[in-house]
Design goal:
The N and C termini lie far apart (about 40 Å). Helix content is about 40%, strand content about 20%. The chain contains 10 helices and 10 strands. It is of the alpha/beta class. Strand 6, helix 6 and strand 7 form a beta-alpha-beta unit. A 7-stranded mixed β-sheet has the order 5-4-6-7-8-9-10, sandwiched between helices. Strands 1-2-3 form a 3-stranded parallel β-sheet, with helices on both faces.
Length: about 260
């Protein structure tokens, strides 16, 4: 088995995928939408198993079953579909919330899809929202400071390539006393306030089932794309106290996990 990591640098993806293809692998496993898209753009014939892909449509696939010959299957995170739920949870974390921001890595296609949905106003329920993108850690800090200076009372934080910047984002958000809710559980685990998402580690473990079947002769396009059936709402109570947030008991009761 060969493994390659882009280390949150999407421009490295094509070369890494090209290198893997020289090994003539039977199957490639890609974690996240950006990696899966890089594999599919490089080869239409290699078997692809993906995990934590926001929506299969970003790969040109249907929601449930790939078309014959597309050589792809795996697990979707439904990340974009969860944007409305995250908006609702952020409103519950910050009662009376009127103005928020969405902070994300601009090179992540799933984050861009979420940004477009938020800008459309379809899921914001009257919430005024500013969309801010970044490309590196310094810019991530600046856009958070800009959001706070412009009056943002809270912020949603993206996933995918954004994950590599969770620590500086969480640190700055705490310094600015800005409540945040992110798209992966690693955010509150690293000091951020909260997250709502499926469990991506579980998805990667589940991807091994698809790989096993492909290695035993199954065609990827004969296996339905798996959708998550459970989601986790994580709250870091230490961070909540640092921000001066009194999390409502009803919200605490609904949390999947509280980090104390």
């Amino acid at each position: 088995m060969e493994a390659r990591f882009a280390e949150n640098q999407p421009d490295k993806m094509p070369a890494l995928v090209a290198e893997l293809l020289t090994w003539q692998p039977d199957v490639i496993v890609a974690s996240g939408t950006t990696a899966a898209l890089a594999v599919r753009e490089a080869s239409s014939t290699v078997a692809l198993v993906f995990a934590a892909v926001s929506t299969p449509k970003l790969l040109g696939l249907s929601d449930i079953r790939p078309r014959l010959g597309q050589r792809s299957t795996g697990l979707t995170s439904q990340n974009t579909d969860l944007v409305a739920k995250r908006v609702d949870l952020l409103k519950e974390l910050v009662p009376g919330l009127r103005y928020a921001a969405f902070v994300y890595h601009r090179e992540d296609i799933s984050n861009v899809a979420s940004a477009r949905l938020l800008m459309s106003g379809e899921v914001t329920s009257g919430l005024q929202l500013k969309v801010l993108s970044f490309g590196d850690a310094d810019e991530a800090k600046r856009v958070l400071e800009e959001a706070r200076a412009s009056g943002a009372e809270a912020a949603l934080v993206g996933s995918g390539l954004t994950v590599g910047f969770y620590v500086p984002i969480a640190d700055v958000a705490t310094r600015l006393r800005l409540p945040t809710l992110a798209s992966e559980r690693s955010y509150p685990e690293q000091g951020g306030l909260s997250s709502y998402a499926t469990n991506f580690a579980d998805q990667l473990r589940r991807a091994a089932f698809y790989v096993d079947r492909i290695l035993k002769g199954a065609a990827p396009e004969t296996m339905p794309i798996e959708q998550p059936t459970s989601f986790e709402f994580i709250i870091n109570m230490r961070t909540a106290r640092a921000l001066g947030i009194d999390v409502a008991p009803a919200l605490v009761a609904r949390a999947s996990e509280l980090i104390e």
